[in-house]
Amino acid sequence: MKRNILIHPDPRLKKLCEPVADLSDELRALADDMLETMYDAPGIGLAAPQVGVMQRLIVLDCVKGESEAPRPLVMFNPRLLASSDETNTYEEGCLSIPDQYAEVTRPKVVDVEWIDRDGKVKTETFDGLWATCVQHEIDHLDGKLFIDYLKPLKRQMITRKMVKLKKELAREKV
Ligand code: ZN
C-alpha cells in the first residue's frame, strides 16, 4: 500500500526517531509500503518519518538503469560505524522537498550497521551514491534534512517555495 509522503516544513520531519525495539509484522509491512512508495515516487531512498512514522527505519535502492537488477534494502536502526575523510559532492533532492536540488558534500565511503527485514544484524561498506543516500536517510531519523547543509538564505528560499506548494496542494484537496 502506498503511503502519503509528508512535505517540508512539517514538525515530524524535524524530530528524533525512536529505535525499533521489536521487529513486528506491522513494521515489516510498513517497510514494504515504504519501498512501494519510494519506487512509485520515484526515489532512491525513504525514511519512516517521511510517512509520519517516528521510528528508525529507512529503505533505499540506488541501482540505476533498467539493465541492472533492483536491490531494495530495508534497514532497521541503521547507524554509521565509520566515515571516510575523503568526501563526495552530489546534487541531492528529497521526496519531502519536491523538485528542489542542491549540492551537498558528505563522506565518500561509510560503514553502516543495521538490522535487516529478517532481524539479522548486517554491516556493509557503501561508496558513491549509495553512501550519500544512506547518510541522507539516516539524517532523516535525526530530524535533519539535506537543506540543513545549505546556507541559510538558500534554505529559507526553498522552505518558502515548499510553504507555497503545500498551500496549493491543500487548495486542490478542497
Ligand atoms: Zn530525504
Short description:
With 174 residues, this protein is of the alpha+beta class.
What does this structure look like?
- There is one protein chain.
- With 174 residues, this protein is α+β, with helices and mostly antiparallel strands.
- The model has no long low-confidence stretch (mean pLDDT 96).
- It has a single domain, classed as Peptide Deformylase.
- Helices cover 30% and strands 29% of the residues.
- The two termini are 24 Å apart.
- The longest helix is centred in the last third of the chain and has 22 residues, at 152-173.
- The protein has a five-stranded antiparallel sheet, with helices on both faces. Strands 4-5 form a two-stranded antiparallel ribbon.
- The structure holds zinc ion (ZN).
Brief descriptors of the model:
single chain; 174 residues; alpha+beta; Peptide Deformylase; 5-stranded antiparallel β-sheet; two-stranded antiparallel sheet; 3 helices; 30% helix; globular; binds zinc ion
Q: Overall mean pLDDT score?
A: 96
**Regarding CATH, which class?**
Alpha Beta
Per DSSP, the total helix count is: 3
The main pleated sheet reads as:
5 strands, antiparallel
Topology pattern, helix = H, strand = E: HEEEEEEEHH
According to DSSP, the number of beta strands is: 7
- Poorly predicted ranges (pLDDT <50, ≥5 residues)? none
What is the CA–CA distance across the termini? 24 Å
Associated small molecules: zinc ion
The percent of residues in helical segments reads: 25-40%
Structural class category? alpha+beta
Radius of gyration: 16 Å
What order do the helices and strands come in, and which of them pair?
Elements: H1 25-40, E1 45-47, E2 57-60, E3 73-83, E4 87-94, E5 97-107, E6 109-115, E7 121-127, H2 128-141, H3 152-173
Antiparallel strand pairs: 1-2, 2-3, 3-6, 4-5, 6-7
The structure holds zinc ion.
